[in-house]
Design a protein that fits this description.
Elements (H helix, E strand, L loop, with lengths): L1 H27 L21 H13 L4 E6 L2 E7 L5 E2 L3 H15 L9 H4 L10 H4 L3 H5 L14 H6 L16 H15 L3 H10 L12 E4 L8 E6 L1 H12 L3 E2 L2 E2 L3 H7 L4 E2 L8 E2 L4 E3 L6 E6 L3 E6 L4 E6 L6 H10 L5 H12 L3
Antiparallel strand pairs: 1-2, 1-13, 3-5, 4-5, 6-7, 8-9, 9-10, 10-11, 11-12, 12-13
């Protein structure tokens, strides 16, 4: 009897150890594989200032950011921290997919004035009403769809501010809406017959010689409350700055048009006045807008202290990223204990960079 009991205890311990090991493996396994660095580094600006870089490094040490990369006129102005590490860029994904829609429209693959009903998309777990199906693709790009449903990736604040369902007709009211943003991923893939990561790699990453990005660095999250998955982008600070530089350079890279200039103008046009986010006054095609002389500053902003600043006046793009965790375990730890850089700190870095321009 005793030997049988010992064997039972042994097998229980063995199974428990195996389960714990498997759980630990998946908890520490990154969502995406580490990047294979390729391509060519950007040339440093000939007048790159050592004093400026030291000032930026000092600012970086005071805030929570892990990487800063700055491009001006296709030259590297600053590269501080782990600029070739992959980071979850969070809501900056929305500004990225906006660019893909601009390219797809130019190629004739997407009609922004088609309604959701006309293109045949729906949320199977929260079926759309007739009014909601009348929302146009353009309305989703403006966060003015009038569709107020549960969505993946929502913050508590977004949930609290969500209007009552069907309380506003499509195109009449602004609400920063993850359902819109996630559905755009579904629409893009249905209309172009390409995965989001595949399109970004082919249309943007390869033409701009991005050094870390791979199509597999776009991952999807699915949930029980909605049938609409959420796509996440993992990018390095250098590659994100290259993306931002396209907007700073009117859509061009080495004189070749990558994003239509007309789309840059449309994206930087405010379709809504912003009253609940102090630092921004308008929202374009998935870009936050801040007044600044002739052209507004364009901001991509993500939770966790992720920032992309596009300064069209000075032909400059600034990527400021924070490591919020790539494996599930470290990502969960960040949510509980992590800190992030603030808008004010990102704005200060922009001010330092443009002080003498």
């Amino acid at each position: 009897m005793k030997s049988r009991q010992k064997r039972r205890i042994y097998y229980v311990c063995l199974i428990t150890t195996l389960i714990s090991g498997i759980a630990l493996y998946y908890a520490t396994r990154p969502f995406v594989a580490p990047p294979v660095i390729k391509g060519n580094e950007l040339k440093e600006a000939p007048d790159r200032s050592i004093a400026l870089e030291q000032m930026l490094k000092s600012d970086m040490q005071k805030n929570e950011s892990d990487a800063l990369y700055v491009i001006q006129e296709n030259k590297q102005i600053a590269a501080i921290g782990e600029t070739d590490t992959l980071y979850n860029v969070a809501s900056i994904r929305k500004s990225i997919i906006s660019a893909l829609f601009g390219i797809a429209e130019k190629k004739g693959l997407i009609d922004l004035d088609k309604t959701l009903g006309e293109i045949g998309v729906d949320d199977r777990k929260q079926p759309l009403t007739k009014q909601e199906k009348s929302a146009k693709v353009r309305h989703l790009l403006q966060a003015r769809s009038g569709i107020y449903l549960d969505a993946l990736g929502e913050s508590q604040r977004m949930k609290a501010l969500r209007p009552k369902r069907t309380s506003h007709a499509p195109g009449t009211f602004y609400y920063y809406n993850n359902w819109d943003f996630n559905m755009l991923g579904v629409i893009f893939e249905q209309q172009t017959k390409m995965k989001v990561g595949e399109a970004f790699e082919k249309w943007i990453a390869v033409p701009t010689d991005m050094r870390s990005f791979d199509a597999a660095h776009v991952v999807y999250e699915r949930g029980n409350e909605t049938s609409i998955p959420m796509y996440r982008f993992y990018l390095s600070a250098e590659d994100l700055a290259r993306f931002g530089a396209l907007y700073a350079q009117e859509g061009r890279w080495n004189e070749k048009e990558i994003i239509p200039n007309s789309w840059i103008e449309a994206s930087s046009t405010p379709y809504s006045s912003i009253e609940d986010v102090d630092q921004f006054t308008g929202y374009g095609y998935l870009w936050w807008l801040e007044p600044a002389s002739k052209h507004p500053l364009m901001w991509g902003v993500g939770s966790g202290g992720q920032f992309l600043i596009v300064d069209r006046k000075n032909n400059m793009a600034i990527a400021l990223l924070n490591d919020t965790g790539t494996p599930p375990l470290s990502s969960a730890a960040y949510r509980f204990f992590g800190q992030e850089s603030t808008y004010a700190e990102a704005r200060k870095i922009h001010a330092v960079l443009t002080r003498e321009q």
